[in-house]
Amino acid sequence: GVRDFGPPVRVNQVGYLTTGPKRATFVTTETTALDWRLLDNANKVVATGKTSPYGADAPSGDSVQLIDFGRYHRSGTGFRLAVGDAVSDPFTIGDRIYSTLRKDALEYFYNNRSGLPIEAKYVGDAYARPAGHVGVAPNQGDVSVPCFPGTCDYSLDVSGGWYDAGDHGKYVVNGVLAAWQLLDLYDETGPGVSLKIPEAGDRTPDVLDEAKWELDFVLRMQVPAGQPLAGMVHHSIHDEKWTGLPLLPSADPQPRYLYPPSTAATLNVAAVGARCARVYAKWDKAFAARCLSAAQTAWTAARQHPDLYAPPGGEGGGAYDDTNATDELSWAAAELFATTGAPSYKKFITTTLTADGFSWRDAGGLADLALARTPWRLPVLDRLRLVQRIAKAADTYVANVRSQGYANPYKPTDGQYVWGSNSAVTNSAMILAIAHNLTGRRSYRDAALESMDYLLGRNAVGTSYVTGYGTRYSHNQHHRFWAHSLNPALPSPYPGSIAGGPNSGLQDPVAQRDLQGCAPAKCYIDEIGSYSTNEVAVNWNSALAWAAAFADAS
Ligand code: G3I
Ligand code: 9MR
């Protein structure tokens, strides 16, 4: 049938910063400039102007015109933009429109912790649940988890950490990326906001308490001394077979295994361990020392085993497969160099940031983001070049924001949207924000903020991809506990949870059934079964939290 994308005037349904850019997209086949009106909550016209005809927007297939109301600076709620009879969803103009999102996006992590009860006093009755995988039946993990049969003959206590996503697997490469992004968020903003988590009120900033929950887990995934491949890190721990939905973590009956160590997981632990050592030095010296020691052990082991790759496919868990660990080597070297200053790491830093950004699979760009946090380690000329590289990537994102009908830094060269495309948007926003901080250029800040507009409703499906934010937002992300659409006694996703977003690969049965022939930017469906367009994941919410914190501080 015909899909309902809401009003043709597409806005950030949360709102716009008083001092930020304010643009919208109007879907229309009209090709001449039209009059737009900004209405306040009393329906009074408070600003007017002319649209800019744009034409066909390739990723969405929509004909659109652009609206710029950036000259309006008054704050208030219940604004709407109108063109002729078409009226947008309401939005706020204000200075603190991102303060709740910044906090909610971080509380995603406590809600997805493994190994402790999620308590009503922090999350409310609807989101409370028993601890998962603490060695209590029917669970078969995670206190003593054996290696996958035939791969080694010990068991490890790998309890704790965060569940990856809608599933109950725990995967090192992207779990590390998420924890790293929280550490980098701390580097960016300092202690930041307080969270509703058990550690609130201790002397450590809450964002670091949350990151430590995952860091403790990834350190447990390291092969102990005396075993074959000592110092390497197991790629993942997950169920033997995929479970169905819904399913509480505490009710997962599947056997769980440690999957073989990989060079990528090991180098990621080297990288995040080094960052951990630097960040926690001020807060928890013993933990910082433990991180550095694990990082150095991992580095040495990975140098001895440079090509142990996690295989594609497999049963019961995500593969997070990767056949090249040279980018992870470079990132780890950069973090170790940034933390220790030891010149021996320098020759291994072989990658730089480009507009391709970074992902759990492509970590090369993170080397520059590591060095950007310790510029004093670099000779002046190298420092300048580093800033130039980050600015060059940001320039591409600005051009992408300016050249697309639905302003968005993500513009894949093949025109196809990848699984988790929304994280390409948030990660680009992070790079734009860092470029802004390094150069002071306002265009970078504006493009970072317009990335939020895309995620919060100014897009081809007229949807805010973040639960609880906007008039029409994603409710049914793929999650085994937040599975309200399958069982009304269960909650919807916690507010501040971002969906993976449009994916032209149509890699799940629901997408294959309902999205055939979709334009790439419209290959999204808010159904719980569509894991390839509508799942949540730790490394996506970490990017959202980072970008929202920047927007809130802007
Ligand atoms: O690396 C290639 C790139 O070179 C190419 O240009 C591009 C376009 O086709 O594809 C890139 O590979 C993609 C890869 O992610 C890295 O971005 C694959 O096509 C894509 O299928 C793959 O998707 C991953 C998906 O698992 C399937 O493996 C997502 O990134 C990843 O977030 C997702 O993770 C899942 C876990 O497996 C299980 N738990 C839930 C989690 C979130 O859905
Ligand atoms: O729930 C799983 C989700 O987290 C993964 O991203 C996805 C792809 O690996 O797999 C989901 O599990 C499904 C499995 O792949 C096929 N059988 C049904 C499972 C639940 O939808």
TrEMBL record:
The active site is at H478, D526, E535. This is Endoglucanase. The keyword Hydrolase applies. Its EC number is 3.2.1.4. It is an enzyme of class 3 (hydrolase). Residues 98-547 form the Glycoside hydrolase family domain. One of its GO terms (molecular function) is cellulase activity. Residues 6-86 form the Cellulase Ig-like domain. GO terms for biological process: cellulose catabolic process. The chain holds residues 189 to 742 of 742 of the full protein. Belongs to the glycosyl hydrolase 9 (cellulase E) family.
